[in-house]
Amino acid sequence: MIKSQLVQRIAAKTSDLSQRDIEKIVNIILARIVDALAGGDRVELRGFGQFSVRFRKARTGRNPKTGEPVTVEGRAFPRFKPGKEWESA
């Protein structure tokens, strides 16, 4: 499912808000999740799951073409851990 499909499905279930308003709300929610993760915070949505940031250390890798050692910088990446409700799904 892509974001526009999510907006359409929410709009089909509610008559109080326009599709444009729902799209704004979805964009705001997603932006706040991204902002929190960028700040190093964890986001927990009860009944859904947790978003967090993990860090990989810098390491020495190899260029697959030449076999030469290459320095791979450390970096942060987002992680999602599904909630317990997903175990039965």
Brief summary of the model shown:
The chain has 89 residues and is an alpha+beta fold. The protein is 35% helix and 30% strand.
Q: What gross morphology would you assign?
A: elongated
N- to C-terminal separation? Answer: 17 Å
Rg from alpha-carbon coordinates? 19 Å
Mean pLDDT: 93
Describe the structure.
The two termini are 17 Å apart. This protein is 35% helix and 30% strand. It contains 2 helices and 5 strands, in the order H-H-E-E-E-E-E. It is elongated, with a radius of gyration of 19 Å. The chain is α+β, with helices and mostly antiparallel strands and 89 residues long.
Features:
three-stranded antiparallel sheet, alpha+beta, 89 residues, 2 helices, two-stranded antiparallel sheet
What is the strand and helix layout of this fold?
Layout: H1 3-13, H2 19-38, E1 43-45, E2 49-56, E3 59-62, E4 69-72, E5 75-82
Antiparallel strand pairs: 1-2, 2-5, 3-4
Helix pairs in contact: 1-2
